[in-house]
Amino acid sequence: MNLCIVGTGYVGLVSAACFAEMGNDVCCVDVNPTIVENLRQGKVHIYEPGLDELVKRNVAEGRLRFTTKVAEGMENALFVFITVGTPPREDGSCDLSFVYQVARDIGANMKDYKIVVDKSTVPVGTADEVRKLIGEELKKRGELIEFDVVSNPEFLKEGDAINDFFKPDRVVVGTDNVRTGELLKALYAPYARSREKVIVMGVRSAEMTKYAANCMLATKISFINEVANICEKVGADVRDVRMGIGSDHRIGYQFIYPGLGYGGSCFPKDVKALIDTARKIGFEPELLAAVDEVNKRQKHVLSKRIMEYFAPQGGVKGKTLALWGLAFKANTDDVRDASSFELIRDLTDAGMRIVAFDPVAGPNTREHFKGNELLTVVDEQYAVLDKADCLAVVTEWNQFRNPDFSRIKKTLKAPIIFDGRNLYSPQLLADLGLAYFCIGRPAPK
Ligand code: UGA
Fold it and tell me: How far apart are CA 397 and CA 338, in angstroms?
């Protein structure tokens, strides 16, 4: 099938490469000429495991092309996917200006029947607006061309995006047109494998499904973080509690790992956007507001603990923290709404020096904290330990899971680890003579 994908971010580029891999002919559009030029040469501008090879192979085999022009991208396509960003505004609402601009461009360049597929995460009602904008552009040109607008939210996770795309739990298609639904089912058949996995519903229900899914997962995380905080006070171990509750298949083990709150470009933004949608229609979403609030608080748990620890020694001012992990989670260079950033802000505001390492998110962090002289980002994991007073671990990269504890103990001024991801065994660290603070777990007796 012939596809046009407008926007080459995580969702757009991963979808494009994965569609091309199944033999579809895909043309990707991006307004940024440098990104397009690099992609033409197989150079990918985002870090996503496996994406580089997939893009290179499909470009070389002629199934994946890139252009800056919507007209060129749409020329032979039956499906036109909108996969541009919907960044959050200050008030929590979504900025839909990129989506609307693409809708206008599609209307201005449409020559024959198209199925316009909205894959960006957008509030309920956006597809109607997209339909209206395309219609207005066609009217301006005096054209009477048929088109459909479909909602097809994407559920892939950064860091595991290709796997998620090739083996989705489900594909949600929002359309009132049976034939369009069948065409999308055919497009997704090689991925979804069984037809039941493609769930066809109304457009508004599909738009709502995306928010409901992310808000449910965010709720699980805020829930377990709240439980972890209570565990700590009552002397229970949240890891045992997680195993105990997760074994009930109605609850499940996933997304109940406690930590420093959820980050990234999706959960924080989507919870706020659904709160905003609800409030705009006069409904107060009390549970979602609490999920958001708990998350905000959780991002400061580790910095608070570090400050409490150093308070008897005159505070953190003049002390140095070695920091492992900057990305909002492992296997990505994405630092949007990363919990590490809150920790860095809290501690450098209080005068602490931080020397940080991340396997891939160093450059993005340096860029973000340009001018903050108390933060140094280095390129070697163990180099952060030199002259540091303590170590904090914030991202669960594999290479932090089994570190050289004797080297840590020898190099740090005092042998203390603050762990925001519960990566280590409190008993093992106690046996090694390392003080250990984690989330929701008591110190060994
Ligand atoms: C999330 C969803 O998982 C995807 O299904 C969805 O498609 C995507 O948002 C999106 O809307 O585009 P992503 O943001 O890539 O994907 O990352 P997740 O793996 O879901 O993690 C989000 C945050 O929650 C991270 O900060 C992670 O560390 C945190 N988390 C996750 C926890 O604190 N505990 C957990 O048990 C799981």
Answer: 14
Q: Would you call 28 a catalytic residue per the annotation? A: no
Please, which pLDDT band fits residue 240 given cuts at 50, 70 and 90? very high
pTM of the model: 0.95
Q: Which CATH number is 351's domain given? A: 3.40.50.720
Tell me the C-alpha to C-alpha distance, in Å, between residue 184 and each of 112, 148, 187. Answer: 18, 12, 5
C-beta of residue 15 within 8 angstroms of C-beta of residue 24: no
Do 250 and 121 reside in the same domain of the chain? Answer: no
CB of residue 156 inside a 6 A radius of ligand 1: yes
Q: What is the per-residue pLDDT for 26?
A: 98
Nearest CA to ligand 1 atom 34: 257
Alpha carbon of 328 to ligand 1 centroid (Å): 9
Q: State the pLDDT at residue 305.
A: 96
Instruction: Give the count of domains, the chain.
Output: 3
Residues 268 and 413 in one domain: no
DSSP 205-226: HHHHHHHHHHHHHHHHHHHHHH
Ligand 1 proximity of 174 Cβ (cutoff 6 Å): no
Atom of ligand 1 nearest to the CA of 255: 36
Q: Is the pLDDT of residue 127 over 90?
A: yes
Q: Is 325 in the pocket of ligand 1 (CB under 6 A)?
A: no
Looking at the structure, tell me whether residues 344 and 355 fall in a common domain: yes
Same domain, yes or no: 173 and 219: no
- Residue 329 counted as an annotated binding residue: yes
